Amino acid sequence: MVNAMARILVFDSGVGGLSVLDAIAAVPYALELDYLADTAWLPYGLKTDAALRDRVPHLISAIARAWAPDAVVVACNTASTIALEEVRLAVSVPVVGVVPPIKPAAALTKTGVIGVLATPATVRRPYTDALIRDFAQGIRVVRFGSSALVEAAEAKLAGAAPNDAAITEAIAGLFEARGGAEVDVVALACTHFPLLRDELAAAAPHAVQWLDSGAAIARRLVGVLNPPAGAAQSGAVAITGGVSDLPACFRTRGFSRVFAVGDGSDFGLTRRF
Ligand code: DGL
To answer: What span, in angstroms and rounded, lies between the C-alpha atoms of 92 and 87?
Structure first.
């Protein structure tokens, strides 16, 4: 058990990890939550596996060296499904990754048809194939990959209207595919997508359960760290690709400090606000 407040570094390509951070903040433990967003490289879902495997462990380990967290949460399915082992090798603290919630979706479906909504990278990964093979036997799985939805979630959290076309395209991709009319549970296998749950639900042709991995990650983190009881606190944000102010979606979650991450190989931090 860590004695004082446990420090957690939550990582994503952009603001999607905030859906996981919100779930962690909801558990009654003394956790300081810091956040790293690789905005310069967003969207990860259109990057190659090799490029992500090369960059993500170096970036996370550089910030972990500077901030000394007690654990790292890779709150990004696209990175978790390709680079989790490499991140574990690069840092000296426990690393918790997100897993597409295919197992709980398969357990919940009554029609025997589930949807999986992810980035174009996650949707075709062998990791996703293996989850379906191991946990969704006898279940029809309708998959759809969207990067436009990632951008729509970014826009929403930046205060703009999310792009309706991205929502409509994703809904059509799931519910108009073969067997899609029977989908009754959708696994949100990208951490940006729970941020659009209301918009997706409003556009869907019938009511379905939209599952994400946030609560499971929070439980796993508590199991790994055994932190003292208390309340979560937001700390600092580090953002790649240039930042001049603390974005509102972080301010409203109690963050007060923002650092720019340099684009050199040492990923140096500069306080901006
Ligand atoms: N939020 C991320 C995920 O869970 C990545 C989105 C992106 O950058 O493509 O997959």
So the answer is: 10
